[in-house]
Specification:
The chain has 154 residues and is an alpha+beta fold. It has four helices and seven strands.
């Protein structure tokens, strides 16, 4: 299965269904199941702008505090599978996805012109996250690694 590495706290927000979009600099043609891998490095410092404060609020609803041992424990691991349904130009995301300044989803990322908002649906967390080396861009994770039971985020 294809996988993408995402830094914390965004990876966990996606896994628990609190973040439906992630802004990237490129638009893939691929659509379908996508494994979410947590980047192996935790950000050196969280920039306490509105997006990080909103991220903390959403994680707290699931009993996860930032920074936390739980977030550090999953660094370098595959933690969930989502359905990747599309990528939209950030300047068009309002008309296609209903995301606009001030909306909860808008507060979680930086929607800049020329970049793409990747949309995720149907998050399923792995009951037992699996360690796997990640890389930039898409990479492949063996299906056997993802055969463990999953927990729906909602």
């Amino acid at each position: 299965m294809r996988a993408i590495s995402i830094s914390e706290p965004a990876a966990t927000l996606i896994a628990v269904g609190e973040q439906r979009f992630k802004v990237r600099s490129w638009r893939p043609e691929f659509r379908g199941p996508l494994a979410i891998h947590v980047s192996s490095r935790y950000p050196r410092r969280l920039q306490w702008r509105s997006s990080q404060i909103e991220a903390c609020r959403r994680l707290q609803r699931h009993g996860i505090w930032v920074p936390s041992v739980e977030l550090m424990r999953t660094l370098g691991m595959v933690i969930a599978i989502v359905d990747f349904v599309g990528a939209y130009r950030c300047e068009d995301v309002d008309q296609h996805c209903g995301i606009r300044p001030g909306s909860p989803d808008y507060e979680l990322d930086t929607y800049e012109a020329g970049r793409f908002a990747w949309k995720f649906e149907n998050p399923r967390r792995l009951q037992r996250p699996e360690r796997f080396p990640g890389t930039k861009g898409f990479f492949f994770v063996p299906d056997a690694l993802l055969a463990a039971p999953m927990v729906g985020a909602n």
